[in-house]
């Protein structure tokens, strides 16, 4: 076989060079939005297979149905970028990548059942590398450790085991901080570092401008998304009331469903949230979403159709009457109404929402990020106020609109201030 040349400096920023040179057992990489950490790790997957004939990779996410369009796709892109398409075989059933000259493999698994991962066998070498993508999704360090301990066996002289953990640091309560970043508690043999969008030289200027503007407009979100710092745990509005979990449409088939729509454009996303509600158990399942900046009216209508909103009640932000009129009259979006407004309607709506538990599907990333950064406001002295800060809330507002008919609509009309106040009071909130 011809000698393969890999030009790492052309591929990634110097901040990532240690990802390819370190032999530490754990490499924990937290990054801001668009920092390039997943691309850099995908390159590492390929490079380690080329460098070490004994290496097979295990790529893990909490939910298997997210792998094909994320880790699998990005490694495939990396192979193509490096000009190595002829050397690798990609299969989707099972989801695997094979290096054809040696039969080394990349396996993709989920943490739905950690014990199943431990039974993987290889035809050459050992599974001695793992990539834990979006590790913030992982529920516990115990299941992580179960998989790590299953990766064992003697390697050739100079061989080593290594585990790469990549994630966005949404909360400083997560076990990842304790295990890999805190000096007093972190594991031995750890390389941990942080990257930002400034370490990704493939970004266009419009995106860079949006990051810099977020620092001014939305400092709480910028803490994670721009700087890669640990997120906020104090003052979260929905603290302890939400979880990310995979679930099927069959599980929620008999529950009533609705759609909420909040409009944005240049700086703020337009958010469409799709939910099913279990009133008996006070659980809201958020099963789908679109969350995008720069959406024109036609694109919004197309997204509603694509995400199967037609046939469901759709409640949209009443502040944009032109958009709702265009959606209904020009693009024939059915069952569309505008959200109710009035004194303290936001605060009352959020208080009512706090009487539910939220199960957020893995595909619903915009809402999940907002739930992790939506906090109460403070006064000039730094005291907490009983009202949320008006930021990090576009998906949350859309969800509140979707829930409106289950909270503040009676006899087909939006309740008055007094009626809403009584409805909240009846819940003991």
Brief account:
This protein has 429 residues and is α/β, with parallel strands linked by helices.
What does the model show?
With 429 residues, the protein is α/β, with parallel strands linked by helices. The protein folds into 2 domains: 8-204, 3-Layer(aba) Sandwich (Rossmann fold), CATH 3.40.50.300; 242-426, 2-Layer Sandwich (Nucleotidyltransferase, domain 5), CATH 3.30.420.280. The chain contains 15 helices and 19 strands. The chain has helices at 8-11, 17-21, 37-51, 68-81, 114-117, 141-150, 175-180, 205-217, 219-225, 297-306, 321-329, 345-353, 365-371, 394-407, 417-426, and strands at 26-31, 55-61, 88-92, 95-99, 104-110, 126-132, 162-167, 190-195, 242-244, 257-262, 270-278, 283-292, 314-316, 336-338, 357-360, 376-378, 384-388, 409-410, 413-414. The chain has an 8-stranded mixed β-sheet with strand order 3-4-5-2-6-7-1-8, covered by helices on one side. Strands 9-15-12-11-10-13-14 form a 7-stranded mixed β-sheet, with helices on both faces. Helix 12 crosses helix 14 (394-407) and helix 12 runs parallel beside helix 15. The protein is elongated.
């Amino acid at each position: 076989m011809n000698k393969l040349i890999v030009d790492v400096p052309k591929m990634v920023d110097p901040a990532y060079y240690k990802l390819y040179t370190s032999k530490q057992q754990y490499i924990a990489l937290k990054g801001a939005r668009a920092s390039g950490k997943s691309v850099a790790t995908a390159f590492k997957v390929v490079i380690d297979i080329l460098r070490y004939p004994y290496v097979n990779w295990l790529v893990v996410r909490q939910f298997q149905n997210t792998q094909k369009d994320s880790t699998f796709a990005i490694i495939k892109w990396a192979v193509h970028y490096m000009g190595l398409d002829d050397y690798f075989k990609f299969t989707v059933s099972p989801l695997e990548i094979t290096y054809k000259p040696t039969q080394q493999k990349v396996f993709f698994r989920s943490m739905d059942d950690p014990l199943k991962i431990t039974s993987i066998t290889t035809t050459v070498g050992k599974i001695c590398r793992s990539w834990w993508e979006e590790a913030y999704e992982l529920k516990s360090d115990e299941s992580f450790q179960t998989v790590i301990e299953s990766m064992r066996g003697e390697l050739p002289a100079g061989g080593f085991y290594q585990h790469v953990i990549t994630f966005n640091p949404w909360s400083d309560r997560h076990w990842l901080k304790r295990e890999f970043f805190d000096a007093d508690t972190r594991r031995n043999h750890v390389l941990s570092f942080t990257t930002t969008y400034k370490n990704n030289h493939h970004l266009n200027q419009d995106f860079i401008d949006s990051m810099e503007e977020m620092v001014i407009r939305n400092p709480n979100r910028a803490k994670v998304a721009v700087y890669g710092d640990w997120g906020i745990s104090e003052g979260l509005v929905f603290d302890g009331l939400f979880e990310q979990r995979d679930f099927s449409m069959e599980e929620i088939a008999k529950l009533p469903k609705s759609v909420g729509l909040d409009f944005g454009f240049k700086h703020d996303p337009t958010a469409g949230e799709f939910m099913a509600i279990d009133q008996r158990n006070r659980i809201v399942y958020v099963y789908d979403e679109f969350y995008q900046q720069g959406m024109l009216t036609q694109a919004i209508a197309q997204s509603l159709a694509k995400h199967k909103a037609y046939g469901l009640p759709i409640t949209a932000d009443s502040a944009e009457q032109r958009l709702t009129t265009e959606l209904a009259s020009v693009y024939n979006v059915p069952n569309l109404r505008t959200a109710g407004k009035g004194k303290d309607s936001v605060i009352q709506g959020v208080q009512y929402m706090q009487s539910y538990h939220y199960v957020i599907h893995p595909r619903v990333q915009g809402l999940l990020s907002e739930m992790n950064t939506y906090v109460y406001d403070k006064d000039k002295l730094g005291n907490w106020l009983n009202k949320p800060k008006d930021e990090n809330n576009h998906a949350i507002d859309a969800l509140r609109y979707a829930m409106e008919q289950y909270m503040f609509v009676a006899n087909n009309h939006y309740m008055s201030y007094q009626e809403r106040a009584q409805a909240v009071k009846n819940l003991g909130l």
